[in-house]
Amino acid sequence: MTQDMQRTPSQVCVFRRHEFLARADERKDCVLRIEEGWAAQYRLLPDGRRQIITLFLPGDYCEPQWLLQGRATLPIVALTRVRARLLPHRSIQARAPHEEDSMTRVLDAVLALLRNREKWIFNLGRMTATERLCNLICELHSRMAARNCVAVQDRYCMPLTQYDLADIVGISPVHVNRVLQNLRSDGLLELRNRWMQVLDMVQLKRLGEIMPGQGEHVPRAA
Amino acid sequence: MTQDMQRTPSQVCVFRRHEFLARADERKDCVLRIEEGWAAQYRLLPDGRRQIITLFLPGDYCEPQWLLQGRATLPIVALTRVRARLLPHRSIQARAPHEEDSMTRVLDAVLALLRNREKWIFNLGRMTATERLCNLICELHSRMAARNCVAVQDRYCMPLTQYDLADIVGISPVHVNRVLQNLRSDGLLELRNRWMQVLDMVQLKRLGEIMPGQGEHVPRAA
DNA sequence: CGTATCGTTGATCTAGTTCAATAAGCGTGG
DNA sequence: CCACGCTTATTGAACTAGATCAACGATACG
């Protein structure tokens, strides 16, 4: 598919599930804008441990920093069928600051990525399994909502398997299942057949969202 | 100290231990370059849980992304006495690409930050306590080495308390202590009075460093 | 309609937490 | 110089969140 990308600059291209959008250390002269489907960037250990580092949803730039570094660092795989538009670096640089897919927009996406990683470092370091999952669900909801991908009654398509979820929040798949059971039985959400329905966003946020709590005092362990 | 910063653009300024280099949401028209001392960016929960997100060492740009977003997101505190040079955005933009403290250099630092966070998301999500600590020690060693701050025999000044270490690697201070005991008794390192001496870097790397292992197969939980 | 993937459940185990107490450093003022 | 108070390091004992193992049921899909 790399070949396709070379042949058809500024075009749309499609990846089947499990196909790679990027491989480690691959050269990149385009940024992708996901138009449909979900993709994930991950790191894998020889012993099988996997951690998903970044999730790409419809509307996201897939690796905006490629614009600056011209190279992928980690593999990116399609979690569903993915349709993406290729944005050659040149065409991005050519656009006026306030246009769609301009330099400014792409750099903003880099900053957003950086902030999102702040959040996940915190999550993985200091939140419980339930908190992490709630947090993820809220994040997905708000990102999907921002792209107008949430239907009535807070329903949205959530194609991640419980294995995927486990590899995002850094827990085991079995435990993901158990936490989801709890959230379901507490009436916070419904999740079946790749459709997520948030039933009690307030409570979900309370369980998962990180409080502002930017302590002004000297930081020290509790 | 914000006042000092306004009054003396392009100057050096000094922070005592526990003083803030930045507060959440503060406006920033300078990037700092740390000349001496260590600082940390962290997030704190009302219940006392703290996670250090970024560590700034001598030679590092402290929050290069301020150049792009003009604003801090999280508090940054001095872990030791810190001396830092103020680099106003204007002066950075004025420099030629290959100069010290040019736009290019600062953007490279943003990219490095992004990659370092990839690594830590992986660490926190999928590595054991021992692996995380070894990994951190190796990272500190190589960052200090890059700044010529490592003396003979792999000795370097490591001012982090065990509480700090705990809040970086996302485990409890007590457990940090125990893991360090193990590493000491295995003859991998020496650590006393804020001085770290790495005795067996090879073994330490093996325990902590992330193998390339970029699996080419379909990612799935082990 | 058979086969691989995905979800669910129970039982057992363990890495790491929490609590609590003590010891060792270390700066500061008298 | 010493005494005091505070921070940091160390250790043990009890506990728990979450992992691991294993089996089985449900889906989906070619």
Automatic annotation (TrEMBL), chains A, B:
Q: Which domain of life is it from?
A: Bacteria
Gene3D superfamilies membership: Jelly Rolls, Winged helix-like DNA-binding domain superfamily/Winged helix DNA-binding domain
User: HTH crp-type domain location, by residue?
Assistant: 127-202
Which InterPro entries does the protein's record reference? cNMP-bd_dom (IPR000595), cNMP-bd_dom_sf (IPR018490), HTH_CRP (IPR012318), RmlC-like_jellyroll (IPR014710), WH-like_DNA-bd_sf (IPR036388), WH_DNA-bd_sf (IPR036390)
Task: Give the record's keywords alphabetically.
Answer: DNA-binding, Transcription, Transcription regulation
| Pfam family of the protein (one) | cNMP_binding
Q: Which CDD domains match?
A: CAP_ED
Signal peptide: which range, if any?
none
Put simply, this protein is called: CRP-like cAMP-binding protein
Give the species this sequence originates from. Answer: Novosphingobium capsulatum
Tell me the classification of the organism that encodes this protein: Bacteria, Pseudomonadati, Pseudomonadota, Alphaproteobacteria, Sphingomonadales
